[in-house]
Amino acid sequence: MAGNTADPGRSVTSRILAIIGAFDGAHRRLTLTELAERAGLARPTAHRLVGELTEWGALHRNEDGTYVVGRRLWDVGLLAPVASDLRSVAVPFLHDIYGATLATVHLAVREDDHVLYLETLRGSRSVPIVSSVGSRLPFHSTGVGKVLLAHAPDDVRHRVLSAPLQRFTRYTITSPQRLARQLTRVLEDGYATTGEEMTPGACSVGVPITTSGGVVGALGIVVADLRRSRGRLVAALEVAAQGVARGLG
Fold first, then answer.
1. CATH number at residue 25
2. Could you tell me if 169 and 85 lie in one domain?
3. Which of 137, 119, 21, 114 is nearest to 69 (CA)?
């Protein structure tokens, strides 16, 4: 939690950043009181700044009075070179995979200790999906997440494996030792899979996008069953990932 209300030296900028920083994966919807508390601001100050942020589009006020991150912040975030270049190069390949499979396909990157979804093309088949453009999900329960975690710096892997692993379904891996073994296997095989670990009825496979500078993202696909199609889907994703890497130069 940044700062406190008794700090006379806090700038307006620091207070605005504290409000935006109050949101995280566990706090996607916040009331005005919660925003003030998490940002370390007096409620009248938070009310004024939240109003300005909402008017600009950085925040959005729901009908129940809670606030969420606004679309405009996402639009600005896409202007970052890594996100914009990767997304623009990858989207045609995502459409190719979607056209061939009619399944949901993802483009994701690592953002701190979570997976950030830069693009999602939703399939026409009835497979339950929780991810969407701009959403952030845990590493351990998604195919793209396992790929990104396997290639993440040691300190990131250590933090994730040291923290409690949230259970989403009865198939979610919550054992750090088992997850660590899977990550080793991901590095050996070149891809990661999940079996109903985030959502019942949804399986996924993910592969890394690797450039000369290392892994910059991951491509993934979600289907109802991987038992017969895993090899075909992995091959399609790997070809697409290689094409994206070439496009990035």
1. 1.10.10.10
2. yes
3. 21
Domain that holds residue 111: 78-248
Categorize the per-residue pLDDT at 3 as very low, low, confident or very high, splitting at 50, 70 and 90.
very low
* Cα 162 to chain centroid, rounded: 20
Nearest-angstrom CA–CA distance, 126 and 194? 18
**pLDDT at residue 169 greater than cutoff 90:** yes
pLDDT band at 41 (very low <50, low <70, confident <90, very high): very high
What's the angle, vertex CA 229, arms to CA 169 and CA 189, rounded to 5?
80
Does residue 215 form part of some domain?
yes
Rounded to whole angstroms, the Cα distance separating 131 from 14 reads 31
Local confidence band at 1 (pLDDT 50, 70, 90 cut-offs): very low
What is d(CA 203, CA 136) in angstroms, rounded to the nearest whole number?
18
35 falls within a domain: yes
